[in-house]
Amino acid sequence: MTRSVRRTRRMLKVTGAGAAALLALSACSSSDSDSAKTSDSSASASASDKLSGEVTVFAAASLKESFTTLGKEFEKEHPGTKVTFSFGGSDALAASITGGAPADVFASASPKTMKIVTDAGDAAGTPATFVRNQLEIATLPGNPDKIASLKDLTESDLKVVLCDKTVPCGAAAEKAIEAGKLKLTPVSYEEDVKSALNKVVLKEADAAVVYKTDVKAAGDKVEGVEFPESADAINDYPITVLKESQNSDAAKAFIALVQSADGQKVLSEAGFLQP
């Protein structure tokens, strides 16, 4: 074999190796570019999924303590969000929503008051029950009047307070009183459960029929007395995103927190029953 032929073959090998290296480098560069694009795309998708803005929650008064805790947890989990609450009687809140009050979430203390909102077409989707609540008698600390039953509240010398019958806690109390075949005349009907409980806390009443959760939240300011008729008047609590929500993604995320294991733990610790 001549020297010129051998030289030509060596050049072809070198040229082939160089081409292969260039192809490999090109492929690597292309792969890195595609990877960068994918990474940028993922980052962009993540940014678009990030929750922000205000979430306005209308919730039954009995949810005040537990929802306030969950609101802080939500804001911590989603920096850039703010949860604003409006607590009150479920009937009044429902009326506000159907009247056009801006809100993202409604958590009611009864299906009946939730129905006001759904019938008006103001709910987005079907409301879901997330907890239940049971009644209890709240007495003065130490229970000085020795109240031991619902029947004891019918004593004429006792000042007893009930929630208004249009409010879920009042409707439940009425149902329990009927179940016990009793007649009870309160000194006042209050607009929501917190107002009824406060009458006892301020010693303006001897007793009030409220939720177990409210007795627990009051701590040593009152004493709770259970009564069997309460089993006939347990309230389901439904929750829903509202149709006119201005921040539906965050509203759905808040409801998801309420229904999560962490949310249910907070609610259970407050005295609510599992749905």
UniProtKB/TrEMBL annotation:
Question: Per UniProt, where does molybdate bind?
Answer: S62, S90, V193, Y211
- Give TM segment ranges: none
Q: Which InterPro entries match?
A: ModA (IPR005950), ModA/WtpA (IPR050682)
Q: Which GO terms describe its biological process?
A: molybdate ion transport
Query: Which positions carry the signal peptide feature in this UniProt record?
Result: 1-29
Q: Does Electron transport appear among the keywords?
A: no
Example of a GO MF term: metal ion binding
Classification via SUPFAM superfamilies: Periplasmic binding protein-like II
Q: Does Signal appear among the keywords? A: yes
Record's keyword terms, sorted: Metal-binding, Molybdenum, Signal
Family (UniProt): Belongs to the bacterial solute-binding protein ModA family.
Protein name from the UniProt record = Molybdate ABC transporter substrate-binding protein
Instruction: Write down the species.
Output: Streptomyces chartreusis
Gene name? Answer: modA
